[in-house]
Amino acid sequence: MMAIKFSVKIYRGMYNQNTALCFLNKKCGYIFLFILMLSAYPSWGQATPKKKLTPNDYHRWSTLFIPQISDDGQWVSYTKQYDYGQDTLFISSTDGNTKYFYPGDGFLKFSPKGSKALVLDNSVLQIQDLLDGTVEKVPSVLSYEMIQDGVSVLIRKVGDKNSGQHLSIKHLNTGNTYDLTEVNIYTISSKGNKLLYSKRIGESYNLYLLDMASHPYQPVLLRTSVEPFKKLTWGSSGNSFAFLEQESSSVNNLDLCFYKIDDQQWFRLNQESIFYKDSQLKLADYRLVIAPDDSKVLFGVKPLVGNNQIKDDLVEIWHGKDKIIHPRRESLGLVGDQVRDWMWWPKKQKAIKLETKNHPESVPAPDFNYAVVYNLWDNEPRFKRDFEMNIYIKELPSGKNHLLAENIESYGGRYIKFSDDARFIKYFKNGHWWVYNTKNQSYVNLTENLDGRFSFLDYGNVEDEVPYGSPGWNHELNMVLIYDEYDLWQVSLDGKRSKRLTNGREKGIRYRVCDATFEPSTAGYFSNFTDNRLDVDKGLVLEAQGDDISSGYFYLDPDKGLQALVYGPKRVYNLKRAKNSQDYIYLEESFEEPTRLVHFKKGNTPNTIANPNAFQFKYAWGRSKLINYQNKNGENIQGVLIYPSDYEPGQTYPMVVHIYEEQKHKLHKAVIPSEYDKLNPTVFAANGYFFLYPDIKYDIGSPGNSALDCVTSAVNKVVDMGLVDPKRVGLYGASFGGFETTYIISQTDIFATAIAGVAVTDFVRSYLSISESEDWDNAWRYEHHQFRMGKSFTENFKNFIDNSPIHHVHSINTPLLGWVGKADRNVHWTQSVELYLALRRLKKEHILLVYPKEKHSIRDKEKQKDLAQRVNEWLDHYLKRYPKKEWMEKGWKE
Question: Please, is 82 exposed, middle or buried when counting C-beta atoms within 10 Å of its C-beta (0-12, 13-18, 19+)?
Fold first, then answer.
């Protein structure tokens, strides 16, 4: 063992195990080593008692984080994050023969050819040669990015005081460096071969263009200005750029300039002719976007003189007829002057406004030959999360509008997408996917004749029908890919041909296109409104989730159909594919088995790259299983039950019940032990507890009773199994689960104790409040979202009262521990204070832990540990009869 340890060589802060593994790579070497170990440790081969997990052991565990694979599939990287101790970044060859490590959690990129790895940590960039092990260190680095297809790296360094940034262009193979000093602003073309930058020279600013594909480098001076250049912007072609230039210190004196490199042509927006109809407009210091064919530039315009009529420093007028409440208008920038998008044709010196008062939002089509325009506030006031918009197509350059569709629900562009050539627009409306042909202005309902469910009711509300999704278009742009509940469909754009590509409905498996299949978007600034093409004929990698909580990945072969890459009763996730090979990596775990990083190549046996917690088998560990139960409606429901690590049949144990909507997906989730996790199932299993995650099914208008029904049914099921002492069951919930917890203990006394974090306790008061995190009234959360009331409090006042724990406080007999962050912007902390004051007045057993400066989740590590400790002490007292701690007896020390 010691010989193996010393055969590992360490070079300049990295670990290289070539020597050791070269020796051990031979079969005879492995056999010899195994025999040597057996002779040294004769007790091996005998059953070894499992260790009991204690807090003194927690420091050994780490979490695998941010795995990457190089483009050639030869190298992977990953970080081991520790609750106790320093994180470590690892680089490993996929054959396992070579490893390097870096203390810390540095930012890493592989070079495209896979021979180099660049790691930035604590302002030091380390360029690791993966083949010979050498490392070059570059100090004082702020950031870096690969350029010229990975041949070089652009390094941004700290410049001298008040002199801008220092840029270095470093060739990764030759090591040659080209330095640029005193750079105040720069941008790189999308292809990474041209650099546009500005430097301050004396009292002026010079704008330069550097073609990094030519050698030797020769920067070309383009312009000189007395004021800094702004918003340097490349066109996606790499053949044009635009920027804003300020001729004087006056903020009203911005110019928009555009340059085409091949033509060597300069264009300046003629503001006098463009704005002659409205001399009160000026260019805004706002984003610039260039059309893919370099023919147009999108820019922003605002009023020349500020509008002070809306914003009044003396008083805010909150009018009952306001479509949007004042705080929301302020946070959205709707109070005061607004920037409007315009489109400019430089060669023609023509420009038109895209956005108007009636349609203040716009998204150009991918080819910039038309735009969709809309008003997010068409149907305000609204009381649901998603916007309902009337969407128009604005023709360019005529500026004419025509209606595309009315009342389209959207949230960040999720339900309306362009094809990348702008010929088609698909959108979801009234339970169906539609496609609009912009050339012949025709509409097709794609899903009306298909045998599948393509939408579901979001939070069970009949007015909130949302799609399962549509991942994109096929490569030829004559088919749309669409999801139903289980399967992936391919539907022709005329709706006449369709094919279900998977058989998930029959197998109870949900198939979705894996992120590893998608190429990086080329749609630029508005990419969230454009779907990529997927080459079905070349095969797709699909993510799979089973009804039985199995998971994994399949390959959809165009000839052979579905082929399992990895699938089974574990949690398999975060699959990534090498860009230029058939190499994959993924993470795999279960509650009983620690997370491991696995590499495989299609057709080969998977191999484990990293299993940092492999020692876990030496410890007594809990196990998880699904349980089945029914609610009062006779619906079948499942939950996850975790057994104590020292479980013995015939004995009964205490149990902690954690509630929050549906949680059966946690069946195979590995949870490392930690003193910073307030309710850690691994820790509770090690301490002799059962741990239950029950699923809850809801009736609209009755979230409290739905939770009560499902949770008590799940608890009774476990009690009937003879596993748990019914007098030693505790309940825990936070946020929405905090509401459920406080409601449940107001209706039943079956729990020995309960813990509620950041709980909503008064529905009416919460409904009639403004969320500080969004500056939006909370009505939507109740009428159309998580609280599932379905109607307003005026239409359903009795149900709002009936579901408010504060109105049942007199019935609470269960000892309750509450916790809250005093700076919570999601659920106001006074919701917990109200319940505290009521229980205090009724002389009920209750303690509220209030953490100053903390929000909806506790972020400070010391406070996390404090909360976890108090939660454990509270439950140990009420469920294990441990003596009360002093803080539970006395509270405030006089």
Answer: middle
194-221 burial: b if 16+ Cβ within 10 Å, else e: bbbbbbeeeeebbbbbbebeeeeeeeee
CB atoms within 10 A of CB 526: 19
Q: Which amino acid is at 202?
A: G
What pLDDT does 23 receive?
26
Q: What is the pLDDT of residues 688-744, one digit of tens each?
A: 999 999 999 999 999 999 999 999 999 999 999 999 999 999 999 999 999 999 999
> How far is residue 191's CA from residue 771's CA, in Å, rounded to a whole number?
43
Q: Using alpha carbons, select from 365, 368, 390 the residue that is nearest to residue 377.
A: 390
SS3 38: helix
Strands (E), 721-858: 724-734, 753-757, 770-771, 776-777, 816-821, 846-851
**Contact assessment for residue 847 and residue 818, using Cβ atoms and an 8 Å cutoff:** yes
Read off the amino acid at residue 574. Answer: N
Torsions phi, psi of 251, nearest 5?
-70, -15
Q: How many Å separate Cα 401 from the centre of its chain?
A: 36
Q: How far apart, in whole angstroms, are the C-alpha atoms of residue 344 and residue 332? A: 26
Q: Where are the alpha helices (DSSP H) in 650-756?
A: 681-686, 703-720, 736-745
Q: How many CB atoms lie within 10 A of CB 798?
A: 9
Residue 103, CB-side half-sphere exposure with 13 Å CA sphere: 5
Q: Calculate the dihedral angle through the C-alpha atoms of 549, 550, 554, 556, rounding to the nearest 10 degrees.
A: -50
